[in-house]
UniProtKB/TrEMBL annotation:
Entry-linked SMART domains: BTAD, LysM, Trans_reg_C
Region described as Disordered: 134-174, 213-327, 348-377, 609-650
Pro residues compositional bias, start-end: 290-307
Membrane spanning stretches: 63-89, 109-128
Keywords recorded for this protein, A-Z: DNA-binding, Membrane, Transmembrane, Transmembrane helix
Domain LysM residue range list: 178-235
Protein name per Swiss-Prot or TrEMBL: LysM domain-containing protein
Keyword DNA-binding set for record: yes
SUPFAM superfamilies: C-terminal effector domain of the bipartite response regulators (SSF46894), TPR-like (SSF48452)
Length: 898
């Protein structure tokens, strides 16, 4: 979306026009009506006879018509005045009026637009008049101090927004109040008992809280016996003074209200917003209460009406963050999104692959960038492997992503090993200090990672984008909207707010969440503006985003946020000082942060996940490590099975068979070995099977346990070798063999004792490549398809395993395609069966579908060709794609021939 770059003067002129229009409609119209038609109030009340006489006599002088026009004019003006007054009050109160009936709704919409324009223009004009000293003071207020954190009332930037809700000064006798979020299990009686020392004073909390504007979707507080999770209450910020007569009198035992006997009931909407179960939750499992600063919710400030940061504790504490070797620290949510991006990249790569016409392909694949690969492995291990759950395939991840809802919260970091989240809608967050850019980079990168399918949008001016992602290629990333300047971004945000307001008005829905549910086809992504905003633009942004919790808009500022929450960060993204509604909840937290290099690598993966072109990959087979020349202690990720042809004595089968196609298992003549094999030993067996010429200890450690403490990896390796030998000796009864041979500093499986199924497949692929006649090729390719029983090392999340898994899938798919070409003239039905199996192995390979459609048509099955096209369309929906022009043209051509 391209938006022109209006200046502030243009905005002031536009607002002035709105103000002038309002003045004309409110004052000019009645003046003109009075001058032309007179007063709408009659001199006397006519009798029924006079009314009947006027209605029955002919209207020859048009007096009755003109009177009706005058009455309609005055009525319309009165309706407009009432609508203007109501919209002004609701605008100042931060609420949206319900839609009026159709005849008067245009008046309401006109009044709403005029009020919004005038309000916005006044805030823009205020930015012009902000003195330099005020900006300096705002910046100075965000600097860290050695004393306690300042409350919002001590910050001059907060004073215009506090109003009557400001906390009392120390010299007053009124107690200081703070806002608290109700959690499941809370009652007014228990809160009063903790605040006052006696639950009988719960009525004070009720009286002080019933006027609070509750967050969207949370019921108002109308009954002291019925409170719901998510409601906001005002409670004293500290215990009452000793000697308070009223407190001492209330300490005697009294009957608690019904709310103490009937605990709070969950409100489903808010429970879902907080990301916890709506029922059957024990109070001890509720997130730790986070109390907002002692500021009562002023109507004009958006953030106090949003939920406080939530801190979720679970059995997986400490598992919500991932530290990369570069020092970057990210959340498990970003790691999951990057894992999906890697899967989508591979699926798009499969879609583009064209089978070689001359030989079985030996093409290899460019692995994902190192930070992305590390994040993906951490996600798969923590989510699936550590819980003994099967790792989903790339296709499963893509299919599950279709049902993922738009992100409504962002996880900023952790405090006490528990994640801290803030709602994106209504977010007004400013970051200052040495770690500001790294933390903002983590927030924006996670939002972009979750942006596909119109779920989220990052709006960022070009200068801020260069500061956050230096040297990155930002074109082609889904969900990223770049603007030349901050003024352009502000205009875009304003236009989006107006657009969503009108959509909500038309659909009669209260917020964007409800609008998405009512019309899922309307793209309404959660929109976040990230920018470096000077102090003079704060008022403009505040005016736009004061209803942002309703419209799904938020702002992230690289600098102080006078109308929101400002955090001061150290170089490791620890919050040392905070100001604003969520200050108390965030002080001491450590936010996620990203280096520029890691962030740029992640953006590259997000771009390729959309099917963007990648660097060309080599088509030269990469040989296995040669022990005669490869003595480097680095992991050789170039090993494949194609250059090694095992020498197997078929008359005397080895006593051990290692299965690596599918789940990794060991077998003897008596059956599978089901006990005794450790997980580390199993992983090492698969890695050794992939490298029959042997690997060094350093190579194995780097490939398998790079994330472990370097001081323990040697012990882990030795323990795995010992476990393999002990288990195989016990299973075979042979005590002398080593099974894993150690010669010349390299470890390899003993080929005379351990037979590997993948090596038979490698030999068949090599045989198909070297066959000289069609008959030999058909025999070799048929053997390839018979030997490929499952994917390589199913359930392994290592990069080398995933790379070889993709290689074998493509090699076998190419073998089936080649076999179909050899059979299609003499045995077309067998050729079609081979192609259909190839599609089963790779359901996204679009060229395969075209070949099948052509062969089906040649066999006289045009209906089957159409079903094949529909099957392709269904699969491509998973990766948010559709058949390309070549496939569509083929379908049209086949239909014409039909």
């Amino acid at each position: 979306m391209t938006v022109s770059a209006p200046t502030r003067l243009t905005e002031i002129l536009r607002g002035s026009c709105a103000l002038l229009t309002s003045a004309v409609l409110l004052a000019g119209v009645p003046t003109g009506l009075y001058a032309v038609a007179g007063s709408p109030i009659p001199d006397h009340v006519p009798s029924w006879e006079q009314v009947a006489a006027v209605l029955l006599r002919p209207d020859t002088d048009n007096w009755l018509f003109l009177s009706a026009v005058r009455l309609l004019g005055w009525t319309a003006w009165a309706v407009f005045v009432a609508a203007t007054c109501a919209e002004t009050v609701s605008h100042l109160a931060g609420r949206t009026l319900p839609a009026l009936p159709r005849p008067v709704r245009p008046m309401q919409l006109l009044a709403r637009d005029l009020v919004a324009a005038v309000t916005l223009i006044f805030s823009t004009a205020l930015a012009f008049t902000t003195p330099a000293s005020a900006a300096t003071q705002t910046t100075a207020d965000t600097e860290p101090t050695n004393g306690p954190s300042t409350t919002p009332s001590q910050n001059p930037g907060w004073e215009p927004f506090l109003g009557e809700g400001a906390p009392p000064t120390p010299d007053t006798e009124q107690p200081a109040w703070q806002t608290r979020i109700v959690h499941r299990g809370d009652t007014l009686w228990s809160l009063a008992r903790r605040a006052y020392g006696s639950g009988s004073r719960y009525t004070k909390i009720f009286k002080a809280s019933r006027a609070i504007d509750q967050p969207p979707g949370v019921p108002a507080l109308t009954d002291p016996d019925e409170i719901s999770p998510g409601q906001q209450l005002r409670i004293p910020s500290g215990p009452t003074k000793a000697g308070d007569p009223e407190a001492e009198q209330s300490t005697r035992q009294e009957r608690p209200p019904r709310s103490e006997q009937h605990r709070t009931h969950d409100h489903p909407t808010h429970a879902l917003q907080q990301g916890r179960p709506t029922s059957r939750s024990h109070p001890a499992e509720v997130p730790t209460p986070i109390v907002a600063p002692p500021v009562e919710n002023p109507p004009s400030s958006p953030e106090p009406s949003t939920p406080a940061p939530s801190t979720r504790r679970s059995a997986d504490q400490g598992q919500s963050s991932i530290t990369l070797p570069s020092g970057s620290r990210i959340g498990i949510g970003l790691a999951a999104a990057l894992s999906l991006a890697v899967a989508m990249t591979r699926l798009h790569r499969r879609r583009r692959h064209t089978t070689s016409t001359d030989d079985v392909s030996a093409e290899q694949f460019t692995p994902p960038p190192e930070p992305v690969a590390q994040a993906r492995k951490a996600h798969l291990d923590r989510t699936y492997t550590d819980h003994d759950a099967p790792i989903p395939s790339d296709a499963d991840l893509a299919a599950n992503d279709r049902a993922t809802p738009p992100p409504d919260h962002i996880t900023l970091g952790t405090r006490d090993d528990a994640p801290i989240t803030l709602p994106l809608a209504g977010l007004t967050l400013g970051l200052t200090g040495d770690g500001a850019h790294a933390a903002a980079r983590a927030i924006t990168t996670e939002l972009l990672a979750k942006a596909p399918r119109d779920r989220a949008e990052l709006l960022i001016p070009q200068p801020a984008a260069v500061a956050l992602y230096p040297g990155a290629v930002l074109e082609g990333i889904p969900g990223l909207t770049l603007t030349p300047t901050l003024t352009t971004a502000t205009a875009h945000l304003q236009a989006e707010a107006i657009h969503r307001a009108r959509l909500m008005e038309t659909a009669d829905e209260p917020d964007v969440t409800a609008l998405r549910a009512a019309d899922p086809a309307e793209p309404l992504p959660t929109l976040l503006l990230a920018a470096t905003a000077p102090a003079r633009t704060a008022a403009t942004l505040h005016a736009i985003t004061q209803f942002s919790h309703t419209y799904g808009l938020g702002t992230l500022l690289l600098g102080p946020a006078p109308t929101g929450t400002t955090l001061h960060l150290t170089d490791d993204a620890t919050v040392t000082h905070a100001e604003g509604p969520h200050a108390d909840a965030l002080v001491g937290a450590r936010l996620f942060h990203l280096t520029a290099h890691d962030a740029n690598a992640m953006l590259h993966s997000l771009r390729t996940a959309t099917g963007a072109p990648e660097p060309e990959t080599s088509t030269v087979p990469r040989p296995r490590p040669d022990p005669a020349r490869d003595q480097t202690p680095q992991h050789d990720d170039t090993a494949t099975s194609e250059s090694f042809v095992p020498s197997i004595d078929h008359d005397r089968a080895p006593p051990i068979r290692l299965q690596v196609l599918g789940s990794v298992h060991l077998h003897t003549a008596q059956g599978p070995i089901t006990t005794g094999v450790r997980r580390d030993a199993r992983d090492l067996l698969a890695y050794l099977a992939l490298n029959p010429n042997g690997v060094t200890r350093e190579q194995a450690v780097t490939a398998l346990w790079s994330s472990q403490d370097p001081h323990t990896t040697t012990t882990t390796f030795n323990t795995a070798i010992a476990n393999i030998r002990r288990t195989l000796r016990a299973a075979t009864g042979l005590r002398e063999p080593m099974y894993v041979i150690h010669t010349a500093g390299r470890y390899r499986l003993d080929p005379g004792l351990i037979e590997v199924d993948e090596q038979h497949l490698a030999a068949a692929l090599t045989g198909a490549r070297h066959a000289t006649t069609d008959a030999d090729r058909i025999a070799a390719l048929t053997r390839v398809t018979d030997l490929y029983t499952d994917e390589f090392a199913a359930g392994f999340s290592y990069g080398w395993a995933e790379n070889h898994r993709e290689h074998l899938r493509r090699a076998v798919t190419d073998a089936l395609t080649r076999l179909a070409r050899l059979l299609q003239h003499d045995h077309p039905e067998e050729a079609l069966a081979a192609l259909e199996r190839a599609v089963t192995l790779d359901p996204y390979a679009e060229p395969l579908y075209r070949t099948i459609m052509q062969l089906q048509t040649q066999l006289g099955h045009p209906d089957a060709a159409e079903r094949t096209y529909q099957l392709l369309t269904t699969h491509l929906i998973d990766i948010d794609a559709e058949p390309n022009d070549q496939t569509h043209e083929l379908r049209t051509k086949l239909q014409q021939h039909r």
